[in-house]
């Protein structure tokens, strides 16, 4: 595992858009060289041009999935000579597998350890940790099957309005507020699909909306 005190000379940002640009700006102020990754659809995106180096990942038909490809991101980091990876937010930012891959490759991961991320990066596990610590949490239930009758039963037990949430990731992706039973099935399907696309994990849960 790389030493966290080792000075970073070059950093790859495993993200896109405004968050990547912000990290590049901060790195430049610290005299750290920067590496961007971009998909074919993002070939004209500003973040590509704000980094010192930029590398195309994925196929032309894949607009977002390559940003979740840990093996490819590690490969680009190593081949470009980067010694650190910053995940930004969303995508792989709460995926402990990226942290473990960085450790195995001798790269610095800018963020928490894999153990902490495993416990807190998944909202369902994070609430379990909170319950064990006797911290009050909002009532919730895991969605094991996206089926109208069971969803309605769970939501009515919790009490409308409810929030549909992705278990992984952040940034508001995979979230829907539902005020009535007739909106529930559609909202769960949309949230699950969005979560899979954004974080590579389709798991969702229902929580009381406050």
Tally the helices: what do you get? 8
Strand order of the largest sheet: 3-2-1-4-5
Report the oligomer: single chain
Quote the beta fraction.
Answer: 15-25%
Q: Average the pLDDT over all residues and give the rounded result.
A: 93
Poorly predicted tracts of residues: none
Number of strands: 9
Rounded to the nearest angstrom, the radius of gyration is: 19 Å
Largest sheet, in brief, is:
5 strands, parallel
Shape: elongated
Q: Measure the end-to-end span.
A: 42 Å
- What are the secondary-structure elements, in order, as H or E? EHEHEHEHEHHEHEEHE
Query: Helix content range of the residues, please?
Result: 25-40%
Structural classification: alpha/beta
Mind explaining what this structure looks like?
The model has no long low-confidence stretch (mean pLDDT 93). The longest helix has 16 residues. The strands form two sheets. The protein has a five-stranded parallel beta sheet with strand order 3-2-1-4-5, with helices on both faces. Strands 6-9-7-8 form a four-stranded antiparallel beta sheet. With 210 residues, it is an alpha/beta fold. Helix 2 links the parallel strand 2 and strand 3. It is built from eight helices and nine strands.
Task: Give a quick precis of the structure.
This protein has 210 residues and is α/β, with parallel strands linked by helices. The chain has helices at 17-29, 46-50, 70-80, 96-105, 114-120, 123-132, 148-158, 184-199; strands spanning 10-13, 33-38, 53-56, 84-86, 108-109, 140-142, 162-166, 176-178, 204-208. Helices cover 40% and strands 17% of the residues.
């Amino acid at each position: 595992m790389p030493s966290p005190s080792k000075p970073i000379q070059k950093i790859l940002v495993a993200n896109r858009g405004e968050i990547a640009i912000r990290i590049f700006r901060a790195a430049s102020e610290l005299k750290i060289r920067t590496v961007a990754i971009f998909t074919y659809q993002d070939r004209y995106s500003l973040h590509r041009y704000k980094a010192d180096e930029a590398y195309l990942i994925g196929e032309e038909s894949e607009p977002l999935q390559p940003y979740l490809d840990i093996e490819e991101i590690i490969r680009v980091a190593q081949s470009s000579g980067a010694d650190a990876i910053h995940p930004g937010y969303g995508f792989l930012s709460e995926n402990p597998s990226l942290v473990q891959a960085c450790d195995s490759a001798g790269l610095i991961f800018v963020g928490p350890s894999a153990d902490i991320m495993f416990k807190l990066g998944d909202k369902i596990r994070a609430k379990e940790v909170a319950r064990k610590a006797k911290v009050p949490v909002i009532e919730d239930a895991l969605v094991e099957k996206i089926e109208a009758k069971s969803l309605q039963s769970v939501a009515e037990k919790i009490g409308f309005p409810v929030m549909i949430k992705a278990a992984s990731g952040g940034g508001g992706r995979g979230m829907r507020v539902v005020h009535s039973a007739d909106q529930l099935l559609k909202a769960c399907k949309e949230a699950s699909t969005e979560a899979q696309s954004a974080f590579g994990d389709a798991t969702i849960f229902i929580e009381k909306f406050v």
